[in-house]
Amino acid sequence: MHFQRITGSFVSSALGAGEFYSTKVTEARDATAKHANEDRDEDRDAPAGFDSRADRVRQFAAEMAMQAYALLAAAEGAVTAYKEITGEDWKAYQTPAQGPATIERKAASTQMGAFQA
Fold first, then answer.
1. pTM summary value
2. Alpha carbons 32 and 45: distance in angstroms, whole number
3. Is the dihedral of CA 10, 16, 18, 20 positive or negative?
4. Residues whose CB is less than 8 angstroms from the CB of residue 78 and which lie 6 or more positions away in sequence, other chains included
5. Which of 30, 56, 61, 100 has the highest CB neighbour count under 10 A?
6. What is the pLDDT at residue 43?
7. Closest CA to 34 of 54, 50, 48, 57
8. CA–CA dist 6, 57 (Å, integer)
9. 35-82: pLDDT as tens digits
């Protein structure tokens, strides 16, 4: 069970990094496309020796690409190791379904229903 959750952490981290990277790529494209800039001053070149905002956004997106790729590799390794150790394919953890409703749950549901009336 612990190995299941550790593998899930790797996969979740890789997924989050991929989504974050996608957002940063979109921001970099928007900053680079002159017609997409709402603030026209961002079209100008930066002062000598400094990067423009668009340059910095593109650089950050590139750094996030490397991080997302590294996390993807770690997640794939964890999933492979899980299968090798347990002999089963890794599946995301899901909480078990609740059993039959108890008297307390039925009473709470009825009480909550009274508030909506």
1. 0.65
2. 12
3. negative
4. 6, 7, 10, 11, 90
5. 61
6. 52
7. 54
8. 32
9. 555 555 555 555 556 677 778 888 999 999 999 999 999 999 999 999
